[in-house]
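Tutorial handout. Part one gives the primary structure; part two gives the three-dimensional structure as tokens.
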Amino acid sequence: MTINRRNFLKATGMSLGGVFLLKLDVKQSSDPNIAVGMLYDATICVGCRACQTACKKVHNLSPELDTYGLHEAPRDLSGKTWTLIELYKSTETGGQSSFVKKQCMHCVDPACVSVCPVGALQKLDSGPVIYDDKKCIGCRYCMAACPYNIPKYQWEKALPLIQKCNFCADRLEQGLKPACAEACPTGSLIFGKRSDLIAEAEQRIQKEPDRYVHHVYGKDEVGGASMLYLAAVPFEKLGFPTLDGNSLPEITKPYLESVPWQIGLVGSLMVGIYLWTHRKG
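Part two.
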């Protein structure tokens, strides 16, 4: 195709139009305390991994076997493992051992949603952060933005997608619990309204102050989350990042909102340079 003025302007217009169609949604969802959540009490968990098995079964996730090919033994969250029970031993925790459940935190104001340019990730008012693989363009901005390092990429596939826990949003619509909470035999994982779970967690700390770290992880971190944790070991020793209460999208909002205008300005400048350098006579 000949690069003439008409073709240049058409291409530039299409590029700029695409920029302004990008979804830079940094709006926080409705009242998080009426949304659903889960409370995980690490002091009750026995590491049976029933939650991990139930998650794989409900979502048809492939097994990740040990080196002998005999047992399910995922080493980390991945495209095939959306929830994982990890054991932190005494060398890491100062003499104590603790199981910990890892999965998407379903943040109240999720950074992954705020940076997704096409709206493939959405925060539902009911609590879950869900993912639409039909919209995803594979930019992986969500992976870079997540403070918990949760979204994973299907590196082994020719057409990879982002993978993470979706809080069993389809089951919630049917009035069911998330599969992991339903499968837990010890009650270490309970499902309910977020505000009720926070009250329950704080009550447990008050009743048994020597049993727990005096902090409900997920209550305030980066604006709060739908996943809440109690533990007997400091959370930083259980692999959790130390985060303040500032919502990440609120910090990045001014920069995200300026991106389309900056690109538009650059595009307009390019058009002006082209017209100037190709003017007649």
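Part three, for discussion. The two ends are 25 Å apart (CA to CA). Confidence is low (pLDDT under 50) at residues 8-29.
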